[in-house]
Amino acid sequence: MNVRPRWLPLLLLLGACDCGSNPSPTRCDVATPCEGGESCVDGLCVPNPDASTDGAPTDAPSTDAPPPDVPMVDAGPCRAISGESTLEPSPVDILVMIDNSGSMTQEAEQTRANMNRFAEILGMSGLDYRVVLISRPDGDTGVCIPAPLGSGEPDCGSGPEGRLLAIHQAIGSRNAPEIMLMRYPDYVDFLRPEAVKVLIWITDDQARDTTADAIRANLAALEPAGMFDDTIHNAIVGFYGDTPATWGDEGAGMCGSLARVGSVYLRLAGCYDNDDMPIAECTPGLAARVCETDWTEIFEGIAAAVVRGVPVQCEFPMPAAPDGMTINYEDVRVSYTRGDGTNEALTRVADEAACTDGAWYYDDPAMPTEVRLCPALCTRVQADEGARMDVGLGCFPILD
User: Fold this and answer.
1) Nearest-angstrom CA–CA distance, 285 and 200
2) Which pLDDT value is given to residue 378?
3) Which of 105, 113, 239, 284 is the most buried (most CB within 10 A)?
4) CA angle 4, 185, 206 (to 5 degrees)
5) pLDDT digit string, tens, across residues 63-80
6) pLDDT of residue 23
7) C-alpha–C-alpha distance, residues 15 and 294, integer Å
8) What are the boundaries of each domain within the chain?
9) How confident is the model at residue 127, as a pLDDT?
10) CATH class for domain 91-309?
11) If you write DSSP's letter for every residue of 175-222 in order, what string do you get?
């Protein structure tokens, strides 16, 4: 299935030079003229030349010339620098596997009721998401997603944006991993290799004849290579306590509707191996009890975890300076014009560690090649359709 993703436009304007907003003995503008017989050329005080920048004598008459006591100010070649950039939201592919056995009536109802809220949170964050749902669509334990994410009955397919691929396949109490692998050829083309993969396992039982390590290995072996390199598992399953040692301890909590403790799925979500040892460089997901009667907070929690776990990129290349010019990186200013037309001046910080909402930083302060928005600002900008970033450049000529 070919689905066109919704890109959020972000216009990056590299504006006219502003050479001298922080005056110094060698910088100038209309309000800060040069002294001592120097002239302002491209925003820099230089000795009076014999000729102007276009080769005409300095005393040549001109109807456009300012009065003699006002030095000529030339914005310089930087005024012609312009360009635009499209910010592409970070892609995330979500796979939902739900047990359709006879004990899952309430769980199916909660899934149907909360999937649109789940999608809404992802959309508000600016993520470019797709959802693969493996479930039978009919009956008390089936899941047919209503609009807008799904089409609702009778087709039980995707909504108008094409973000849902529904695989109409019944899943039993204990075979969700097997079904997911078996039906992979039916949804592999819907997935994007570069997207973070988020898996949501929903069952009141335990996986049969497999382990958490085996599931990870099977996912890693799927083609194309690397499809599941960046994966976050979430488990809505039965358990009592919140640690591997107490998952099966009935005295550690309440969960009366489980059939078996879903320890395989809990190990996946918690980034534990088969021996319950933490796995390095693994992003944990959310573990939630299947016996809860209202799953609103569960799905909102998973959505929030997805937003936190998916890296969002807001990086824009610095332009090359025109011939004979260099950029003063201390004078570069960035502002954010929201989709509603209001403007927000942004603050430069030293690096990502110093980030706040409303700030940006250079990739390399000593030799910048990129302007980078801080993560909180990046999320806001990506979710703001029609947003624009304006970058004002400070520049001056290179003198021999």
Assistant:
1) 9
2) 82
3) 239
4) 110
5) 444 344 333 333 333 433
6) 39
7) 52
8) 12-50+64-86+314-397, 91-309
9) 78
10) alpha beta
11) -HHHHHHHTHHHHGGGS-TTSEEEEEEE-SS--SS--HHHHHHHHHTS
